[in-house]
Design goal:
About 50% of the residues lie in helices and about 15% in strands. With about 210 residues, it is of the alpha+beta class. Strand 4 and strand 5 form a beta hairpin. Helix 3 runs antiparallel to helix 4. The longest helix is centred in the first third of the chain and has 36 residues.
């Protein structure tokens, strides 16, 4: 048997190595060159500044909204209590009117009672006023659907249509927000007057 020439083996191996190296070079040439982006300090600083400004703006909006909600809560937290108190004021006014209609006004005791009730009412209304609870007593004013509730209409030629001619129950506001509407009767044009004179904005509830 003939032994392979030892000198030929390295040459074959060398040829194989050169072939593999050639393939690697071709693959490397086919791949796109990857460029490493250089950091841009000015751009990164601008982005960080913009993000910071956005965060600060969001925090300011949140702070303002929170303060507004807290203020609204503070102003109207007593709404339910205020409604109960104004009902007491209503009953006090009815008691005064009832006592004043009696035939015993000549009695000094009744007069003293009425005077005491009037003083109590005055102090109660002053206390309500301190807490921005304002009475709405629109007698003779133009009907306002934001503050008044029309219970009935009265035909008349003495006042313009849409004028409040009777207040059945006064209303109240709390910090300029309606707490309870005034229950009123409203004038409307007489039957022989032009229907066009009737106030179109006034709503009536039965």
């Amino acid at each position: 048997m003939t032994k392979p020439d030892e000198d030929e083996i390295p040459e074959a191996q060398a040829g194989g190595d050169e072939s593999e190296l050639s393939e690697q070079e071709q693959t490397a040439q086919q791949e796109p060159e990857k460029k490493i982006a250089e950091p841009d300090p000015e751009r990164e600083l601008a982005e960080a500044k913009d993000q910071l400004l956005r965060t600060l703006a969001d925090m300011e909006i949140l702070r303002a909204r929170t303060e507004r909600e807290q203020e609204q809560t503070r102003k109207f937290a007593i709404a339910d209590f205020a409604r109960a108190v104004v009902s007491v004021a209503d009953n006090l006014r009815r008691a005064i009117e009832t006592a004043a209609d009696t035939e015993t006004l000549s009695d000094e005791g009744v007069k003293s009672l009425i005077e005491g009730l009037l003083m109590t009412e005055k102090e109660l209304l002053a206390t309500l006023d301190r807490y921005n609870i304002q009475k709405v007593d629109p007698m003779g004013e133009r009907f306002d659907h934001d503050l008044h509730q029309a219970i009935f209409e009265v035909e008349t030629v003495n006042v313009p249509p849409g004028t409040v001619v009777e207040v059945m129950q006064v209303g109240y506001t709390l910090n300029d927000r309606l707490l309870r509407p005034a229950m009123v009767g409203v004038a409307k044009a007489a039957a022989d007057q032009n229907e066009g004179e009737k106030d179109p904005d006034m709503g009536t509830e039965a």
